[in-house]
Design goal:
It is built from five helices and twelve strands. It has 197 residues and is an alpha+beta fold. It folds into two domains: 37 residues, no CATH class; 159 residues. Strands 4, 7, 8, 9, 10 and 12 form a six-stranded mixed beta sheet that branches. The protein has a four-stranded antiparallel beta sheet with strand order 2-1-3-11. The longest helix is centred in the N-terminal third of the chain and has 14 residues. The N and C termini lie far apart (35 Å).
Length: 197
């Protein structure tokens, strides 16, 4: 398996076992980003015991994020007994980062490949602009956006154009890396979702 730096995505295969960052600069950038974005995640999510950790592993020749509990045992996006508080997940060193189990009214529009060469693609910007002010974060890869908001529980949808919508039975690997100046609130995304699907 090809282990990757959780900050920049560079390979960690030649570094010590358990390394999370390829350089000291990446470690410092990650610390500063987390410190600056700690309050970016809406309190509705932070106060909910729907958190877990995630671990990067190879599955079918691709990198995949597998949910794990803070003690390293497997977690599940559908089993609340494997979830914990935000503080417990954030303070754990297990795996590569924190994840949130969608549901209980909180959903996500996942825009894969939304950022190209540091700029938001026109198609993705139109979706973000169609949303009321709500929490948006840059994904782990730095190339996607997670638009969080209030959604009724429904089956996940994939448009096949880099747009996925989930509101239950999934977890999202969180960064807390707020996109532009998005607010730390969750808006109702029902109308937007009905238009894009």
């Amino acid at each position: 398996m090809d282990n990757r730096c959780v900050e920049c995505g560079n390979s960690l295969n030649l570094l010590r076992k358990g390394a999370k960052y390829c350089t000291g600069a990446c470690k410092i950038r990650a610390y500063r980003r987390r410190k600056n974005n700690r309050d970016a995640i809406p309190s509705t999510m932070r106060d909910s015991d729907r958190w877990m950790r995630w671990k990067l592993e190879e599955r079918n020749g691709r990198d995949s994020k597998r949910p794990v509990m803070v003690d390293g045992r497997p977690a599940s996006s559908t089993n609340s007994e494997t979830w914990t508080s935000f503080e417990s997940a954030k303070d754990s060193a297990t795996g590569s980062g924190v994840g949130f189990a969608l549901g209980n009214g909180v959903g996500c529009i996942d825009l894969d490949g939304a950022i190209v060469d540091g700029r938001v693609a026109d198609w993705a910007q139109r979706i973000v602009d169609a949303c009321p002010p709500t929490f948006v974060e840059v994904s782990q890869s730095g190339r996607g956006l997670h638009v969080f908001g209030l959604l009724p529980e429904m089956p996940g949808r994939n448009t096949g154009r880099g747009v996925e919508v989930y509101s239950t039975g999934r977890f999202i690997a969180m960064t807390g890396d707020r996109f532009k100046r998005s607010p730390a609130v969750l808006a109702d995304l029902s109308d937007v979702v009905s238009r894009i699907l």
